[in-house]
Amino acid sequence: MEQKPVSFFVNFLIRAILGMGVIFFINQYVIPDHNAWKVGLNAVSFLTSGGLGIPGVCLLYGILIYQNL
Are the C-beta atoms of 45 and 39 separated by less than 8 Å? Predict the structure, then answer.
């Protein structure tokens, strides 16, 4: 019975850490010249990438690009 909350928490942490790594990689190597299009590494991006995974990272970049149109 206790396995499910621990499994959820570990899954959340893995997705959040991988999502933050993807955000860092994109900010450093894909769009290094556009400072307005960089997603910040903060608690909101950590929770979004942890909760939604890679689609959450795409959502963060989509919101940022939409704001800069």
Answer: yes
**Rounded (10°) CA dihedral 59, 64, 68, 69:** 0
Say what the pTM is: 0.88
Residue 17, both tokens: 């850490």
* Helix orientation angle between 54-67 and 43-52, rounded to the nearest 10 degrees: 130
Contact assessment for residue 54 and residue 16, using Cβ atoms and an 8 Å cutoff? no
Mind listing the pLDDT tens digit for each residue in 33-47? 878 889 999 999 999
What is the predicted pLDDT for the residue at 49? 96
- Sorted by sequence, the CB contacts under 8 Å of residue 8 that are 6+ apart come out as none
